[in-house]
Amino acid sequence: MNKNRLHPIQIAYDPRGIVAVKPQRLAPRLRTFENVRLGVVDNSKWNASKLLRAVISQLQINTTFSEIFMYTKPSFSRPATTALLDRIAAETDAVITAIGD
Amino acid sequence: MSKNLKPDRTSEESANALLVETSDMIEYYFEQGWTDGLPIVPPTPKLVNEIVIALGGEPNFLEARIPPRWGNLTREVLAINLVLAGCRPSYALVARTAILALTSSHFNLHGVQATTHMAAPLMVVNGPVRNSIGLNSGANVFGSGYRANATIGRAIRLVLLNVGGGRPGDLDKSTLGHPGKYSFCIAENEEASPWPPYHVEHGYQKDDSTVFCIATEGPHSVTNHVSNDPEGILDSVASAMSTIAHNNAVSSGSCAVVIGPEHAATIAAKRWTRRDVRSYLWSRTSNTYDDISFRGRYGNIYNRNLPRWYRRESGERIPIVPSPDDIHLFVAGGEAGRFSAFLPGWGHMTAPVLRSINGAAPLNSPCVDGTCEL
Predict the structure, then answer these.
(1) Which of A67, B239, B337, B344 has the most CB atoms lying inside 10 A of its own CB?
(2) Tell me, what's the ipTM?
(3) Min CA distance, A68 vs chain B (Å)?
(4) How far is A94 from chain B (nearest CA, A)?
(5) Is the dihedral of CA B355, B360, B363, B369 positive or negative?
(6) Separation CA B299–CA B297 (nearest Å)
(7) b/e for B185-212, b at 16 or more Cβ within 10 A?
(8) CB-based burial of residue B351 (10 Å sphere; 0-12 exposed, 13-18 middle, 19+ buried)?
């Protein structure tokens, strides 16, 4: 053991594995909701649609959306399909979702 | 306090080795946050290499990516976690089979890892490998005392923690968890069972070895010391199943029932088959719509997480699971004692999976890449 070291040198193993997935950037933030196409994604949890309806009502007090599109994810726990994500991306400028547990 | 120095380049084949300055390797792993809260077995090049060889060599071979962190589980990383857990090399193929089954899309491991529910993956092993590696299927089967059960289950949990990032409060959002999140691996007691083994029911040969995985709560004991017929015993099981408190009641899906050997013998003495048992349980378990809707106390509840064909009207029967096939039945436990167990599942968000050790699926089965969705 090196005299300058307090403890011996040993081999350890990192058990985590590397993450090879590339991080994605967030989409640019909107400056205003005015006249945007709003997507509302209900994840099918117990209270999600109730919560989202309340949020839309509150937002509409001071904001005029050009359109509001409603979407439902059939399973709150499973990932949304690529087809649904593509549709939301094509039809909307902003999206609100809720867990609604 | 330990100190990381640099990656260990003394063994070029390892992408995960580090040189560290420490006098206590067990404390080192605690300090890094790489344990399940219990002390680990410090991996050495020899121990890791023995398990890599048992897995087929090629330490950088990618076996799976583990959600929700999506860490790469190479053979070496799997071997490291097996060593940490205290596994022998002979356990490696069972652990890998479990991992490959758990990471099939049917199982939705991402959801199981992240949910606020307490569910954990239960693994049930069938076939000759049970006895060759010393898995307990008898007395205290869900409890402690056997290295293979304890360390294989622990190794899977360490992979979910370390590679999958399922750390409590971080990516694992479980409100309560349950003790099976340390280790949750049993074997079917094929020797004490009056019926063909579980995997044979699903098309495998008796000499095949398989791992079944289902996301469940912990076991709920079912006591029945008085019935000398199938109906009485299974009515007790049905009673445990028929409650609005578990996730099956409100989210459908699958569940597991473990019949103790004494109960199994009584049931089989009347020539009831596995299918008879599952069908009887399905027909005798339910809530009413009034129960699950709280009799309208909180407004009109439809519950989109139950099948569309359930009749949502006062007095109507709401099954616990959609069909007898959604009750996964095993015989396990000690030879003495008139006990069985019910393990509620997580819900329709996951599907149980079955995979053989060698990855071969039964002929004409709907299995994908060797893993069967049940």
Answers:
(1) B344
(2) 0.93
(3) 23
(4) 25
(5) positive
(6) 6
(7) bbbbbbebbbbebbbbbbebeeebbbbb
(8) buried
pLDDT tens figures, A43-71? 888 888 889 999 999 999 999 999 999 99
CA distance A43 to A53: 13
A15/B16 Cβ within 8 A: yes
d(CA B2, CA B7): 15
Tell whether pTM > 0.90. Answer: yes
Q: Which residues of B touch A76 (CB under 8 A)?
A: 349
At position B24, the amino acid (one-letter code) is D
**Nearest-neighbour CA in chain A from B86: distance (Å):** 14
Tally A–B CB contacts below 8 A. Answer: 106
Judge whether B13 and B52 are in contact, CB under 8 Å. Answer: no
Q: Which CATH number fits domain A25-98: 3.40.50, 3.10.20, 3.40.630, 2.60.120?
A: 3.40.50
In this prediction, residue B11 has a pLDDT band, given cuts at 50, 70 and 90, of: low
